[in-house]
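User: Need the bound-state model for flavin mononucleotide:
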Amino acid sequence: MTDVTTGATDAASAASLMAKPEPQKNTNSPWPGPPGMIPVTNGQADDANIHARAYLDSLLVEMRIIDAVEPDLATEIIGKKYTSPMTLAAVSHLNKVMPDKTRKPMQEKVQAAKKLGVLNWIGMEPDDEYAEIVEDAGPTVRIIKPFADHEQIYQEIKTAERLGAVAVGIDIDHVPGTDGHYDVVDGIPLGPITAADLGEYAAQTDLPFIAKGVLSIQDALKAQEAGCAGIVVSHHHGRLPFGVPPLAVLPEIRDALKGSGMTIFADGSLMSGYDAYKALALGADAVLIGRAILPELLQDGSKGVEKKFAQLTAQLREMMMYTGVSDTSSFDPTVLRRV
Ligand SMILES: Cc1cc2nc3c(=O)[nH]c(=O)nc-3n(C[C@H](O)[C@H](O)[C@H](O)COP(=O)(O)O)c2cc1C
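Assistant: Bound-state model below.
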């Protein structure tokens, strides 16, 4: 049976699939490629994904069927129109994991997003690979790592501008490493991002700037102060041990940013259209779908993603109809009951 938390096909691999890179514990991972390339979970209480899943499953839904009609999923995100409030998350490094070197999952994902008319995100790829991946792409947000070398950040912002990104940002939640020091990714040292840094990056570019990995009102307000156009409420598939479920903090962040005009994205274990519905009902303007599309992407490329996305869309539409939500600006958190 497929596990709704992870998309994995049995309980053992479900427990092993999410969260922090744990190369030595990757034996049950269903992903191809070198151990640790695609994050897996330790399945313990410190794994924030466990709590994200439990929180999502504790949210039940009232029915408001009288007067309900088929919903319209068209959504404006930072001034551009898309067919859905569901976007394809940054899931980097995938071209390296495929044993079949003729396959390019990063490009396949970009093409699926374009075909579907949804926003796509690109994460940590070197600028030259990023350029190849987004050749002939639809709208893309480029997320840059919090490099210790700030010059590299400025350079990557410039490349994103040149390549026509619709927004640019930093995954600010990728500063700490599991050794208690600043993380190092692909041999590149990461470093702290101060509020002043964030303000400078946001001011440097005409593109909307996004802070990805906000999980408190404090950081949300700092991002606002820094001039960010948007935030992603996220713990980056459980980088933070014991991380609070993004959906648990989303409503208070939404309230804190009320009237700011900022776009609020959310992600974290959204494995179905029903999960996406809950994030949207709790105040996300749009959601990022990452691991829910990974098995299909790696197995069947663009077509697999399109098929999975159609399933997520059907679930989102079904839930919107049952709850009388006719369009993506009409979500109502009072429909949800926590049990
Ligand atoms: C294989 C993989 C690579 C990722 N790489 C990046 C990255 O480079 N930059 C980034 O901001 N997020 C990255 N993420 C995090 C996702 O964008 C997303 O925040 C996270 O997976 C939570 O969403 P999900 O539960 O739908 O997967 C990555 C996720 C995965 C699974």
